[in-house]
Amino acid sequence: MKDLAVRLAALDPDAGAALHVIAYFDRLAEARAGLHTIVRGAAVLSGCAARLVDDERRVRIRVEPDGASTPSGVRDKDWISAAAGSATLWLERSGPPGPVDAMVLERAAAAARAVLERTRGHAAQADPALVELVIDAGAAEPLRLQAAARLGFNPDDPVRVVALGSGAVRLLPEPGGLPEGRAGVGPAGPVVRLPASYEGAVLALRFTAEGTESDPGPRVVHADELGGLALLAAAVGPGTEPVPDQRALDRAAATAPWVLATLDAVARSASLRAAATALRVHHSTLQDRLAHTLPVLGWDVRDPQGRLRLHLALALRRLHNNQR
Fold first, then answer.
1. Counting Cβ atoms within 10 Å, is residue 179 exposed (0-12), middle (13-18) or buried (19+)?
2. How far apart are CA 225 and CA 222, in angstroms?
3. CA dist., res. 314 & res. 305, Å (int)
4. Tens-digit pLDDT profile for residues 223-232
5. From the DSSP assignment, how many helices (H) and strands (E) are in the chain?
6. 82: enclosing H helix or E strand
7. What share of residues in the chain are helix, strand, coil (percent, to 5)?
8. Quick one: which of 39, 28, 23, 30 has its CA closest to 82?
């Protein structure tokens, strides 16, 4: 292959260089090279920095053209890239790729994808039908274990279910980064416990909010952290009438656009000063706002009892907004 590349280069330099790239990554594949070696090869052959990122598997590798590994910084959207399964390989160079860069991207991405699948198992976009079977409490355990194996999970792997606001369900190996967006996160455990993790994830999702001024609150909630609040979910279903404190909260929200965000910050902060910092307002402004809410709510959120009522009213409001 090397001799052929030399002879071909004499006739067509680009074709010779491309053949050299193919032979290079074939040798890495035969040697079962790791991800760093593959990215280093991409950087050296292309003459520019290369990086490989797989957010789900927490892989972040960047290598300079001299072969030195460096931390990843901000990515430029114009860099040329190629998908490597759930990962992406970039060459930090803009504009249309030349023949050599295109071949480097193709061969390095293929090599990286093979290594990721061989060493880090879990597919990023799992088969929804298999996921549905794994979390189905009514399915026979051998079938669920078999489905989990096809998704890349061993029976003892710690895994948790994530229920997304979009309605999708993801299985997340532990430890693992959460997907973006609203999410309820179930407890981690072995594969046979995934139906219970799913129930926890769906329950936790009901306590999430959009995180906006009109729907303030956490976008991600872990079932493990709900404690006794989880009992509230069973009390709120379709047709359940709001309790008086929730009605008072809704009346207060109608008086000014900042009310809900202000009350949510008070409920979630360790002190009023911390709440003012979170809201980016002066402490006196926060005091004025709370004085505004007092006659509408009918209770003072600045004392412990009032904050507890506020916590519960906000939680009940989210449960009403997020019916299962």
1. middle
2. 5
3. 14
4. 999 999 999 8
5. 13, 8
6. strand 79-84
7. 50, 15, 35
8. 39
Tokens encoding 240 = 């359940």
Q: 10 with 87, same domain? A: yes
Q: Hey, what amino acid is at 135? A: I
Structure tokens at 171: 């299985």
Helix (H, G, I), strand (E, B) or coil at 115: helix
Q: Any residues with CB less than 8 A from the CB of 109 and at least 6 apart, and which?
A: 82, 83, 84, 89
Q: Read off the pTM.
A: 0.61
Residue 318 and residue 62: Cα distance in Å, rounded?
Answer: 42
Residue after which a domain boundary falls, among 70, 91, 125: 125
* Structure-block tokens of residue 15: 């074709």
Residue 195 and residue 182 in one domain: yes
How many residues does the structure list for the chain? Answer: 324
pLDDT digits (tens, 9 = 90+) for 119-146: 766 554 567 888 899 999 998 999 999 8
Q: How far is CA 134 from CA 125, 139, 178, 255, in A?
A: 15, 8, 19, 47
Please count the structural domains in the chain. Answer: 3
Is residue 14 within 8 Å of 101, Cβ to Cβ?
no
Show the domain range for 295.
239-322
User: What SS3 class is residue 210?
Assistant: coil
